Amino acid sequence: MTGTDRSGSIVVVTDTRAGESYLRPRLETATEYGVRTVPASGDLEGALGSAPPSENGDGDGAIDVNPAGSETDVFDAGETTAAAASSADEEAVSTPRAVVLELDCPGEIQTVLQRVHAVGPTVPTIVAPREGSERLATVALRADATEYVPTERDEDPIDRIVSTIRSRPQPPSDGDDGRYRRILANELPDEAFVIGEDGTYLEAKVRPDSADLYSMTVDDLPGTRLEAAFPDQVAAKLQDCLDRAIRTDDVQSVEYDVKTTEGRRRFEGRVVPIGQRIQGRRAVVWLARDITERVQRERKLRSRQDQLETLNRINAVVRQVIETLVEAPARDAIEDEVCEQLVDSELYCGSWIAERTGDGRLSVRTGAGEAETYLDRVRDLEGGAERPVARAIRTGEIQTTNRILEAETIPEPLQEAAREDDVRSAIAVPITHEDATYGVLTVLASRDDAFSERERAGFRLLGETIGFTIMAVKNRQLLFADTVVELEFRIDGGDTFAFDLSEEYGCPCSLEWAGTTANGRTFQYVTIDGLDGETVCKAASDHESVEECRLIHDGEESCTIEMRLSESGVRTLTKHGATIRDVVVEDGVGTCLVEVSQDADVREIAEALTRIYENTELVARREVDRPVRTAAQRRSRILDRLTDRQLTTLRLAYYGGFFEWPRESTGEEIAESMDISPPTMHQHLRKGLEAILGEFFEGGGHS
Q1: pLDDT tens for each residue of 343-373
Q2: How far apart are the first and last CA of the chain?
Q3: What does the domain layout of the chain look like in residue ranges?
Q4: Is the bond leading into 662 cis (omega within 30 degrees of zero)?
Q5: Would the pTM count as exceeding 0.90?
């Protein structure tokens, strides 16, 4: 470089892993000083002018500025040779003008600065990493670097480096805080302060875009104590952290809240003790970083994790409840078990099951938990807005109330009870099976947002499972009972097809069978006396309650039809554990005979039928003893109904694999073995099957 001033070169300490220096070419262009490079692991002391004697023993203190043989000096080989051959009283290398560290490793920066200060305490040091960070700035500050200039910033770092070199600042001394002021003002992220050991602000730097957030300006902070800037409790917490940093001479950290014009913000403070005294006292550099967004993200993540954990626990409770329902002997046992297990899970503070009575009031069947005040207040409330339990019964949909204490729709007396019992959320779950509603399960929780959509799905399954189990228990009790209760209902003026047909044509209608398919369709087989099938089918197709109609049998005196109905009182009764024995409609008046178990809720069944047929009256209630038949007796009854030819045909077809799929014997093969024609064989087969099925279905009623 032409005209280079060699009275003091710039030494650039490089990272051996990074290859060539990225600052050297630019410094050569921007300054009149010579520029040399030395790897961080190289002969740094020699480059600073205090090399140990050479191995050849000449003791002239000359240094090898290129120990690795790479291009590490601005001087060419001839100049290096000339320097080595100079007189002994001339310094091999003059004191550097400055040392620039283009290092990114905190440990290397600290080590190199210690080596530089040990050899040349007056040499300015500039830390210029490729990518700056708070940690690197802190290391530079604590290791007494003259300046810190990260090179990835938008402004040109060379100007800052050259300006620092030419000013040739003095080394730090007791009470000199200029270096800290420069670093605070330009390099450290977010807010940064120099604070004395007594908690007094000495210097302050706040980002321009956040200066308006605070009630106290940055210019007002110097001379102010922590107690004036923060509430007493927060100030004491910060002072403890400051004292700990000075006492241990180590970096400390603390999190604290700051009230700003945009609300409460969360900050993380890193407290770096300063080696020199400032204004005669020990001090620290306080680096404050706004971590509000990070804290919010972490809080949301924890919330999602808590929700997932809670949901898993809820699902486990639901599964446990469902498992116990299978063995429940009666409806009361089912409901008691559900309420007890929900409360025992410690997820919920209360649980009860209620139903509507005939007069529209709320009747609690069973419950568990300690929220008794809340339950009593629910019972006492009458009128006003429709409550969640009533909506759940009316709509068949789950009703959820989160944050009860803040909900405007909750009456004040109920909110007071919620405060007393620590109830924050509630859910009302209809207990249903298909179109039958057996009651409502209400669950209370002490969490504000206890019932998310996923939790609602779990409770929806629980409500349906309880409903199915109650229906199954009712049917099981009826199936195995030796004594049943026969109920006779009188229905005046129903709106269904059978009532309208009998009233218009004066023809009796008798129910043969009613049931529901797997896809939920309701079918009825009805025999009409004194009316032809064509007239009946025409009337059925015009009736709004009939979705489909098919003629099954059309005789001279009666006909039988199959109907698919949109609504059926018969189906409603079966869902409540009742077996239909006989239904006859004549002249617009129906007589319905059903069987129920002895412990069945007759009022519940009557109310269910009333919802379909408004004018319904229970006219008789009788206990009936069922005849007990053994399997042998039932088999004998079936055989008595079969002819010898029908029994032979059934046996040959069964043992010959006619009923297998695919068939092992065809109808023709069975007929040939009997020496009869195939049509005759099929006639005997169908008659025999009809006799067997008749015994089975007629013995089981219409359910």
Answers
A1: 888 888 999 898 876 566 677 888 888 888 8
A2: 108
A3: 9-49+94-185, 191-294, 327-479, 481-626, 628-702
A4: yes
A5: no
